[in-house]
Amino acid sequence: MVFFTCNACGESVKKIQVEKHVSVCRNCECLSCIDCGKDFWGDDYKNHVKCISEDQKYGGKGYEGKTHKGDIKQQAWIQKISELIKRPNVSPKVRELLEQISAFDNVPRKKAKFQNWMKNSLKVHNESILDQVWNIFSEASNSEPVNKEQDQRPLHPVANPHAEISTKVPASKVKDAVEQQGEVKKNKRERKEERQKKRKREKKELKLENHQENSRNQKPKKRKKGQEADLEAGGEEVPEANGSAGKRSKKKKQRKDSASEEEARVGAGKRKRRHSEVETDSKKKKMKLPEHPEGGEPEDDEAPAKGKFNWKGTIKAILKQAPDNEITIKKLRKKVLAQYYTVTDEHHRSEEELLVIFNKKISKNPTFKLLKDKVKLVK
User: Fold this and answer.
1) Which of 31, 74, 141, 291 is deepest in the core (most CB within 10 A)?
2) Residue 300: its pLDDT value, please?
3) Which of 91, 123, 151 is the last residue in one of the domains?
4) 201 pLDDT higher than 60
5) Is 6 labelled a binding residue?
6) Is residue 30 marked as binding?
7) Modified residue Phosphoserine is at which positions?
8) pLDDT at 302 over 60
9) What range defines the domain where residue 360 resides?
């Protein structure tokens, strides 16, 4: 956006607001641009569409600003608008609109955006006028490329030098030249994609070649192994050429035999350890049978010899040994089960079944009396 200063009052004004300012400030005859400092008399300010940037202003003498593609297109678009104003067949309403449009430097170049811009900035909502303005623009833009093509065409037909050269040059070189021209025309993305495809193809080809070589190398080895097996089965000796392969097979067999022997030794050691552990457990669990009372004969209720376990007799014997014929259920259970394990040896039941039997024997027998956590022998 271009800004001007009034030389009469010194007020800074946008390009769009100049007409309003002229109607207010009567002495306004000359306007000067804030950026470049040029003076514009009368209506000359309308042609000053774009000014220098801050980089160009403060960059020094040798500074050259970069030209943006969008700015070049915008300038061409605004020039087209100024050319359309001069046409005789344009209606006065449309001409006024075109004059207002030429004051802007950000005019859209597409129909939908252009019409929205007209509605917002110029407050034109009549669709017929909007269509008329756009049709004039589209006609002007379509007529330009036709004129350019006519200017570019040569007046006299010139002989094509490439045709004469192609007759002399061989076909292979011509193809290469055509491919090079096609590569030049392609975009950077297309070139990149082609390179990636070529690399992928090369990788695939290398993989296939390596795979084929490996398969060729593996086949003769398999055949040699098969021949050796056949010779061994027939009882024939392996030839000297294949002596190394025979030695390897023998070594493998020896290793397998030694490994099996070691496994057998380890298994035997483990069994011995388990047997010793079981014996130690049984020794720990063993308890001495209750001793006979002094000066008397052994009773019938005491624990019997190994074989069938006498629950009632063992419980009675343990209670008699206890002070006041009374003992806690926990201690009694421990002693009875220990005695059970010593009698039955290996053929004993699970702990759950033993606990159930123990509880039944205590609760149902009238000779045993339960007092909370203790058991007492009733005489």
Assistant:
1) 31
2) 38
3) 151
4) yes
5) yes
6) no
7) 215, 244
8) no
9) 311-377
